[in-house]
Amino acid sequence: MRKTIIAGNWKMNKTPSETTDFIKALIPLVDGARCEVVLGVPFVCLQNAVEAVKGTAVKISAQNIHFEENGAYTGEISAKMLCDIGVEYVIIGHSERRQYFAETDVTVNKKVLKALENGLKPIICVGEHLSQREQGITEEIVSMQTKVALCGVSVDDMKNVVIAYEPVWAIGTGKTATSDQADEVCGIIRRVVADMYGNDVADGLTIQYGGSMNAKNAAELLLKDNVDGGLIGGASLKTEDFSIIVHAAE
Ligand code: PGA
Questions:
Q1: pTM, 2 dp
Q2: Which domain holds residue 128?
Q3: How many domains, in total, are found in the chain?
Q4: Over the stretch 26-55, which tens digit does the pLDDT of each residue have?
Q5: What is the CATH number of the domain that holds 56?
């Protein structure tokens, strides 16, 4: 059985003090959840978040890292720094980072390798643009992103990898992929991983869907065989909506 993971991606929202308050309110709502609950918070909120989840099963994620260990990279944050404060996950290659910060499949791969080397679990985002879906090349795009992101990742390290299928046209737009579309592409990703690592690794891999997942549509998406959780943006900013999604995953 693979792990179901419901992860919030707060993006550039909430201050450190709001983070503490949010988590205090969220904990009783998700206590005892049978899926893994992860909160992806801004860098400056990480320390408060780690503190606030102590003694609970909730895990904390960053939203980016640099691909080098340390050095002259003004403004950047390393995997090692995040591990040192107790962060467990990191979102890598989100489409907003690809779009606004020139992230490529190659830098995504470097970041994935650096995260794993430091014991951080990467949540690797892949997904097609609307024009690519309309051209009928979703499979090619998502397969290539997956293969390049995983280049050089060992079979052993695959235990710590999560992939999130996030069609770019569904992010923040209110347009959700249908549950069949989500299941189909998550299945394509699983086959790519099976070709690279074998069926056991592919069967054990958590593949999330992300893109306008909310309290209303989560249950239907999460029922699908190949959808093992969600990466949730907008709906992760409200404790009630987010906890409904967590319980839908059960
Ligand atoms: P959304 O964002 O749920 O607001 O569409 C998802 C994401 O970007 O991870």
A1: 0.98
A2: 5-248
A3: 1
A4: 999 999 999 999 999 999 999 999 999 999
A5: 3.20.20.70
